[in-house]
Structures are given as structure tokens and as C-alpha cells.
Amino acid sequence: MNIDFFKEETDFELNQQKNARTWISRIISDEGYELKQLNYIFCSDDYLYSMNQKYLNHDFFTDIVTFDNSETENTIESDIFISVDRVKENALLQQTTFEDELARVLIHGVLHLMGWGDKTESLKKQMRIKEDACLSLR
Asked: What are the tens digits of pLDDT across the range 54-108?
């Protein structure tokens, strides 16, 4: 499978990588997309904040930044950066486990690559429903 996991400025390593790869690959395939390459880079809050400023001109912390590197429609080729610090904090705020929040963020980035948005409240609700549907397949 063409899903790899890396880390920058964190010691975090994803447990059960094989299960995560299988689950994410199945979602991609079920949605009619071809997986070329998907790189998840786990990092610190400061690392992702810096990237958010540099590449997106956003001056705020975030849990995820997704870069779509695909050159053809219906293909997934991307680098997805995830702040482990932010996922931990969001898990507390959402009163869920770190593992469940991380799974939500992992699939959230993939859904963005498939055209799902979250810029408005309506789109956020639709995204959450889709995330929940994907999470139920884990």
C-alpha cells in the first residue's frame, strides 16, 4: 500500500499502521479514487503552525494541513501534516480518546482530497457526517 507515516519534531509513532493503511485504502477505493501515494507526517504544534503560516498565510494553530499533489482527477497523491499536540488537545475538548480523534483527523485529510469542504457551518456538518460514516468502517 502506498501510505507511509513519518514524523517531524515529535516522537509520536502510529500504532497499528497496517490496520490504518487498510482502512484508509478501503475508503479511498470505495469512493472511486485511485491511491498513488499518501504521506502522513506527524509533527508538533509549532512545526505545523510554521507550515500554516509559510504555505497558507494562516496565522493560527491547526490540527491538519493537507497538500494535494495529484495531477489527475480521482487520484490521491498527498502529504498530510498532523499536529499530534493539537489532536491531543482536541480529544480532550471533544471528550473522546486520542485514538478516535486521530482517526477522525486521518480521514478528514483524505476527505478534503476527495472534494469535501468545511469552510461553512453547513459544510462542517456534512463533513462530520461523512467522517462518522468512515469511522464506522474501522
From this structure: 888 888 889 999 999 999 999 999 999 999 999 999 999 999 999 999 999 999 9
| Structure confidence by residue, pLDDT tens digits, 11-29 | 999 999 999 999 999 999 9
* SS3 letters across the chain: CCEEEEEECCCCCCCCHHHHHHHHHHHHHHCCCEEEEEEEEEECHHHHHHHHHHHHCCCCCCCEEEEECCCCCCEEEEEEEEEHHHHHHHHHHHCCCHHHHHHHHHHHHHHHHCCCCCCCHHHHHHHHHHHHHHHCCC
Cα distance from N-terminal residue to C-terminal residue, the chain: 17
pTM of the predicted model, to two decimals?
A: 0.95
Cell of 55: 504555505
How big is the chain, counted in residues? Answer: 138
Q: Which domains does the chain have, with CATH numbers?
A: 3-135 (3.40.390.30)
